[in-house]
Amino acid sequence: MRPTERYEDHEHVLREIMRSARTRQWTCMPGHFVSFDAGTCTAVVQIGIAGQQTSDGVSTAVPYPVLVDVPVQFPRGGGAALTFPIAEGDECTVHIVDRAIDGWFESSGIQPPSSKRRQAISDAFAVPGSLSKPARLQNISTSTAQLRSVDGKTYVDLDPTGQVVKITAPGGLVIDAPSVKCSGTVTASGEITGNGIPLSTHTHSGVQSGSSSTGKPQG
């Protein structure tokens, strides 16, 4: 008996065919990082939603196998990039590509397909940042843009309305540069130290009345 003869309603047959086809299609899924290799910028990723396996009419949730050598995508362009220190358990979105990515991933540019496979779960990219309810960020600013730690204690805050940039860093701020230029007024509420000499308490040698200049600052 042909499959179409099992149903009197051909529209139902078409719906069943489409439903069956959709079960073999991949688009994107939530997941989490099992491990991350910063040298190759690839990761081992676990899909966050289990598959279903049916036996004797009983469906059982079965986790998918981990995906290995998954390219991790960070925002990048024009010679600049934004990276994150990915840790085990961090959540991500797994994007499944329509065609095999092997050739493109190795050589970039426009490459011939390395395989005839289509929408295979092994052809995936991982984008960090998906957040389930338990992992959601707290105390999100609704008026400024922030580059921040997850706990919100350390951040760079850009206020587009007030045109102000604020840096909050409880552990300190380190600038590694041959020179620093400032075109405006610098105001400091704490101590300023230059070459080991504090500004507010330093003294000068060779102090005399009149028009003479003092000697160099002393600590």
From TrEMBL:
Transmembrane segments: none annotated. Residues 29-129 form the Phage protein Gp138 N-terminal domain. Residues 194-219 are annotated as: Disordered. Gene3D superfamilies: Gp5 N-terminal domain. It comes from the Bacteria. This is Phage protein Gp138 N-terminal domain-containing protein. The lineage of its organism: Bacteria, Pseudomonadati, Pseudomonadota, Gammaproteobacteria, Lysobacterales.
